[in-house]
Amino acid sequence: MVVAIWLDGGLAFYDKNRGVTEIGRPIEGGAAMCEWIIDQLKAKLIVMSGRRRIDLVKNWLVANNIPYTTINQTLDDESITERSNQVIADMYIGPHCFTIEPGNFVPLVDVLRERSREINASGRETYDWGG
After folding, report:
1. Which of 72, 60, 66 is nearest to 6 (CA)?
2. What are the chain's domains?
3. Whose CB among 10, 16, 39, 105 lies 3.0–4.6 Å from 6's, allowing a Cys bridge?
4. How many helices (H) and strands (E) does the chain have?
């Protein structure tokens, strides 16, 4: 399973007046949520950001002890036959995807568990949303 989470509004508080080089403070519970996704769900975690300076994002994640698999990159997977500029994942988390109340990741745990069960039970490849 592959989970993608937005940096701004998903892991970091977002203030449009900060500019593109300053990332907001971490949202409480975000690091633990990412650790749970990787360790308990055994999922790969892609951090998404509209920032062009990936080094800033990486440094912020490391400084805040937030685990991740990659930043802004679809993982190599033979089931993907077409490329896209959009990160391809089984689930997207963030202010424009699954609504996160700042610091309250508990409802998300249930959604991720259910989605993971569905994918595992279906026997189909991830990314295949067809019936």
Report:
1. 72
2. 2-122 (3.40.50.1000)
3. 10
4. 3, 4
Per-residue burial over 35-74, b if 16 or more Cβ lie within 10 Å, else e, is ebbbeebebbbbbbbebeeeebbeebbeeeebbbbbbbeb
Contacts of 75 (CB under 8 A, 6+ apart): 2, 44, 46, 69
Could you tell me the pTM of the whole model?
0.72
Name every residue whose Cβ is closer than 8 Å to that of residue 64 and which is 6 or more positions away in sequence: 26, 31
Cα angle 58-116-77, degrees, rounded to a multiple of 5: 60
Sheet holding 91-93, edge to edge: 70-71, 44-48, 2-6, 91-93
Q: For residue range 21-73, list pLDDT tens digits in order.
A: 789 999 999 999 999 999 998 999 999 998 888 999 999 999 999 999 999 88
pLDDT digits (tens, 9 = 90+) for 2-28: 999 999 888 998 766 666 778 999 999
